[in-house]
Amino acid sequence: MGRAFCYVILGGGVAAGYAALQFIRLGCETAAQAGEFCIISDEAVPPYERPTLSKGYLFPEGGARLPAFHTCVGANDQLLDADWYREYGIELILGTKVISVDVRRKTLDTSAGETISYERLIVATGARAVKLEEIGVNGGSDAENVCYLRDIADADKLVRVMRSCPAGADAVVVGGGYIGMECAAALVANRMKVTVVFPGKHLMANLFTPKIAEFYENYYESKGVTFIKGTAVSSLQISSGKVTAAILRDGRRLPADMVVVGIGARANTELFEGQLAMEKGGIKVDGQMRTSDASVYAVGDVAAFPVKLLGGEVRRLEHVDCARMTARHAVAGALEPLGPITGEINYVPFFYSRVFALSWRFYGDNAGEAVHFGDLDFSASPSPPSAPKFGALWVRAGRVTGAFLEGGSPEEYEALARAVRRRTTVPDVAVLLARWGLAFIVQDQEGRSGATRSGRLCGSGNTSNYAWAWHATVGVAAAVSIAAFAYWYGWKAPYLAKRHF
Ligand SMILES: Cc1cc2nc3c(=O)[nH]c(=O)nc-3n(C[C@H](O)[C@H](O)[C@H](O)COP(=O)(O)OP(=O)(O)OC[C@H]3O[C@@H](n4cnc5c(N)ncnc54)[C@H](O)[C@@H]3O)c2cc1C
Asked: Reaction catalysed by this chain (predicted)?
């Protein structure tokens, strides 16, 4: 038997870093100094902000490097480097894979041959990249110039391969999701000729509407990217350990100096199969992030939890904000009865991406009717807009369920998040949203028409109230709209383009 800890965090990614900080914030300094906490990770470095790997890390010059993006700088919080963990007495067991777990005995076996025991376990094992073999393309994953992107070792390989290619070399990106999109933008910045191949009809098919996807596809094409949709890579031609071409199902052959694969992720649940309840490809937890075993919590990508906003529907969300929030929530729960009494988690799904000089955010659920606003069409312009602003609201049963915005200000993003959280009522989708778009949401946050709307929702509003509200809404919306337009016209977003994580 090896070491014994009160609290063990299994996994050393985003959620682990935020969990560690939360333990200290909730007053566990003394316990930490007494050696009650540890993080076990098969990565060689302390927790870091994983999204940086597909953004600032891939910049052609002056890219982000550790220790600059350890957690929790992504949430504008403290930077937890190795010294921080040392100072607080949280044991970092790095470069160590946990190979088996016995939930009943509360023990973990590590690749170093140690058996570690715990009283409470927080599972933060995240997810891993789906490999080409898993979609029937054999023999390419180990090639010198085939790259995945999940951890820092992958990112180092990607940078190395990219830099070994001459300007104008051919890069094939397999997959049209966010990894594919972000890597394609990075490859362009690194002067590669990029072709993106994916089987769907448009980019980011799980989130984007066809109209939103069209904007980004046009934008990417204006930067020289080629899209091949509706087909997939069926095999890779390899010579001397390197891929030389990708062969598509429809028979086309794409020359390739390098290949980047972004075809999805799978949660790392294997250690707990048959021991904990599973759902949606992850470990099932309750509103306190507690698994079917009372001493085990699960957070981040690996956790499937009830989303109150969606009527308690269980979801597994592979988003960094979710990892942060679920980690904080689980720690508060794990500390009970010593810590604060935690309620059920009330999380608004939130996801973002940054590519080229663009930056978007999405809140909620993309269910219902999508109503677009802003200018998504630049086909008549000679070049793409330098600071585009557009988006969509998803409305179901007269209420906002989801919101997407490209190029928003912090205040506008906050307004969107609040509209989704409150499930703002939309009296007339066609007129209000299509015509006033973002201004409709922003003015709603100022509370000028909210009361009347909710009165109407409850059936207590009368016609004159509604007419008054309508005119007030339109008046305010017009004013905000004009102000928003003026603001937008002179708007620049250097902080978004330059941010590394
Ligand atoms: C390249 C990239 C870019 C991203 N960009 C965005 C973005 O722009 N916006 C966004 O919202 N989300 C983004 N994400 C998603 C986000 O990073 C994840 O949702 C987040 O990292 C999940 O945190 P986690 O702690 O659950 O898992 P992870 O951060 O993946 O951490 C899991 C950790 O567990 C370790 N581990 C797993 N199994 C074991 C084991 N058996 N023994 C020991 N250690 C183990 C892993 O090595 C890893 O350290 C991105 C993800 C990637 C890969």
From this structure: 2 monodehydro-L-ascorbate radical + NADH + H(+) = 2 L-ascorbate + NAD(+)
Q: What is the mean pLDDT of the chain?
A: 87
Best of 320, 322, 351 for a ligand 1 pocket test (most atoms within 8 Å of beta carbon): 320
Rounded Cα gap, residues 167 and 405, in angstroms: 34
Locate the ligand 1 atom nearest the alpha carbon of residue 43 and give its number.
47
* Contact call for residues 210 and 202 (beta carbons, < 8 A): yes
pLDDT tens column, 323-354: 999 999 999 989 877 656 678 999 999 999 99
Q: Say if 345 falls within a structural domain.
A: no
Chain Cα centroid distance, residue 36: 31
> What pTM, to 2 d.p., does this model score?
0.88
Q: Which residues contact 112 (CB under 8 A, 6 or more apart)?
A: 96
Q: What pLDDT, on the 0 to 100 scale, is given for residue 455?
A: 25
Q: What angle do CA 315, 391, 418 make, to 5 degrees?
A: 55
Are 374 and 468 in a shared domain?
A: yes
The answer to whether the bond into 165 is cis (omega within 30° of 0) is: no
Whose structure tokens read 């689980």? Answer: 330
Cis peptide before 255 (omega within 30 of 0): no
Our answer on whether the CB atom of 49 is closer than 6 Å to any ligand 1 atom is no
187 within 8 A of 173, measured Cβ to Cβ: yes
Residue 437's domain comprises 357-489
**pLDDT of residue 234 exceeding 90:** yes
- In a domain, residue 89? The reply is yes
DSSP sequence for 273-297? TTTS-EETTEEE--TTSB-SSTTEE
